[in-house]
Amino acid sequence: MIHTFNYTVPEDGLTIDTLFQEKWKLGKKLIHELRMQKAVSNVGGELLQWKLPNKKGDVLVFKWEGEASNYLLSDQIPLYVAYEDEYIIVASKPRGASTHPNEDGQNHTLINTVMNYLSLKGHHYAEHIHRLDEGTKGLVVIAKNPLVKGMLDRMLENKEIVRTYEAIVEGQVKNNHGTIRAAIGSDRHHPSRRRVSPSGQQAITHYEVVGRNPEFTKVNAILETGRTHQIRVHFSYLGHPIVGDELYGAKKTPTRTYELHAFKAQFKHPITGEVLIVEDKKLES
Question: Residue limits of the Pseudouridine synthase RsuA/RluA-like domain (predicted)?
């Protein structure tokens, strides 16, 4: 499919080479593909020289052939968009929904719903940068073209996308803030459960207590690493499983759901450089 977007040059003297290599830090393969496709022009359609300086306020038009997303369209789950621009959408996943399909024909997921929403606007690409467990509600960052997808993937790998979770856990967490450093691996006794294991992958969770009552503690947690079920495993390891998280030792609750919410995402916009702080203000899960 054809991808296209406009970019306004923010400073005098910026070349396309510098933009791609230093500001956006694109990979060599992608830069080569864009060069071969002659992907950059001005608003009049004139192809631009990559080594020539541009003026502040000039508009660069990017147009290239790239991969499309092939998700089925669906409006089966409610969609709340916390942030959207030409390049990115940050959407809130309801508790109980998957982030993306795990098998052919599956369409009751967040990404199917986002694709349906974007298709009504004439867009045909949406790829998630990270995922949330089915039982976790909250924000998921989604790229609207493959160039931005690559940039956001690199940012996630470099820990430049900060995701903050709110969890309500059983009991009284002793310290008001702290860091949990405990490697996580598979649990050989259960196909989907994880456990703290010396032979597992490094896992680091930072937390701060933000509320207490006699039975529960409310914490904000930030992941330094992104292991499967990391927050759930770490607080269970401390003896304070997330309320309702029976898989990790919590007491049963009437709702049979657990209280974990990815409520904030903070990162520097890969295209504009603006610092984005996006919060999930959806009232219901």
Answer: 88-236
